[in-house]
Amino acid sequence: MEVILSILQTILIFVAAIFVLVLVHELGHFLAAKLFGMRVERFSIGFPPRLFGIKKGDTDYCISALPLGGYVKISGMVDESMDDSFTKSEPKDYEYRSKPVWQRMIVITAGVIFNMLLAYIIFAVITFSHGVNQIPAENIKGLYVPENSTAERVGFETGDRIVAVNNKEIEYIRRGQFFSMADITSSSLSFTVDRNGEMVTIRPPDDFLDHLARNPEFLELQNALPSKVGAVSDGSPAERAGLQPGDEIVAIDGEQVGFWLQMVDKIQTGGDEMVFTIQRDGEVMDVAIAPDPERRIIGIAIVDPHEFFGFETIRFGFLASLREGVSQAHDTLMGIINGFRQLLTGSISIRENLGGPVAIASVTADVTERGGALGFWSFTAFLSITLALMNILPIPMLDGGHLMFLIYEAVTRREPSIKVRMALQQIGFILLISLMIFVTFNDILRHVVN
After folding, report:
1. Domains contained in the chain, CATH given
2. Cα–Cα distance between 379 and 21 in angstroms, integer?
3. pTM over the 0.85 mark
4. What is the enclosing helix (H) or strand (E) of 423?
């Protein structure tokens, strides 16, 4: 029952995100068409068959069965419906084809523009309402690097302190992230770390993003948390052994530890009873603790990360929040573009890095579960930018394909023939359906393998 409820929750969250993205995208086309006096015959969320709706004026506002998109049908336009019956009559004033090229360009690109605006607004509202948490980089003294992790394969070692990414010095850790999306997807990615007082440059291998796709947990703030006791559970093995909040665990069975995750790893793989070396008020003592045999825990909690790292919450005014929203959206856009570039050049695996509906639904549910409404809207902004970028690609059936025809018309002063446009639309439709089938099966296979 829990599995079924979890699946239903994932589907509902995914559909909610897609609904918002499609509504905003199609609203852009709709408003631009209305602005220039074009007749909109249908405003549909979802693809046919039509489920229900209401007709107001010349427009049928409806919800359709397939939730993975939507469309605005404008009179006198060759679109996804492949309807070219209007070509048998003379152009009418309210038709798309009768308007100047520059107006049609605005209508075609309005969906992409609205998706970008949505991302700007989401990031700006989050910044304005919650501020931005940041930590002075100097407060991060080092990182724990688990064995066989992506970080270890890249070349990081336990104790490394990151001081620069792509030769840009890190002054603050913002939003709990050591690197931006644009940084991590850069083709010339490099990390500069302080390793025991020596500056070392780490250059990840060419397949770094493939490793990251398989194991998204790279280097996070939890890797820097100390092996220090924040709280002790009542009746736990730790309480029976006399551990107290503020104690620092410096060794387990004689092996030095300094980080929380490092300590957890040793407890998980240790014996039935282990010797913990504790540092308390300058004194060092050894205590024997037998972890819970089933869960392999001793009943202690981490220190408060905000207090330990010295979190600072920066508040922004309205205009500053807008600038921050644009900056964050731009960074996300560049990260996606960098990723696409590496996909197209074959630098990274398409199978490992290209996600479809299943992957998107899974990630949307995951970030919502971990981050609540904030996580949902942050990821929706990311998807909105991705949708904008995908739609502007010069592929027939997409907005970019229509824009390509309009650019041709503006340069040559003549429209491409209906036959050419219809043929290219059909080719584009086949390409998009093929891509959808591929990414969906790729998602399923990737989940089965993992």
Report:
1. 2-130+383-449 (no CATH), 132-224+303-314 (2.30.42), 231-302 (2.30.42.10)
2. 11
3. no
4. helix 418-449
Burial of 313 (0-12, 13-18, 19+ CB in 10 A): exposed
DSSP string, 242-311: T--TT-EEEEETTEE--BHHHHHHHHHHS-SSEEEEEEETTEEEEEEE---TTT---SEE---HHHHHT-
What is the chain's alpha carbon radius of gyration, rounded to the nearest angstrom? 27
Q: What is the pLDDT along the chain (450 residues), one digit of tens a residue?
A: 666 776 677 778 877 888 899 999 999 999 999 999 999 999 998 888 889 999 999 999 999 887 778 889 999 887 766 666 776 788 889 999 899 999 999 999 999 999 999 999 999 999 999 888 888 988 998 999 998 888 898 899 999 999 999 999 988 888 778 888 888 888 788 999 999 999 999 998 877 877 777 777 788 888 999 999 999 999 999 999 999 999 999 999 999 999 999 999 999 988 999 999 999 998 999 999 999 988 899 999 999 888 888 888 889 899 999 999 999 999 889 888 888 787 777 666 666 666 655 555 556 666 666 667 888 888 899 889 999 998 998 888 789 988 999 999 999 988 887 787 777 777 877 777 776 676 666 656 555 445
Strands 172-174 and 231-232: unpaired
| Tokens representing residue 290 in the block | 């037998």
Ramachandran sector of residue 242 (left: φ over 0; alpha: ψ -120 to 50; beta: rest) = left
Residue 323 CA to residue 329 CA, distance in Å, equals 10
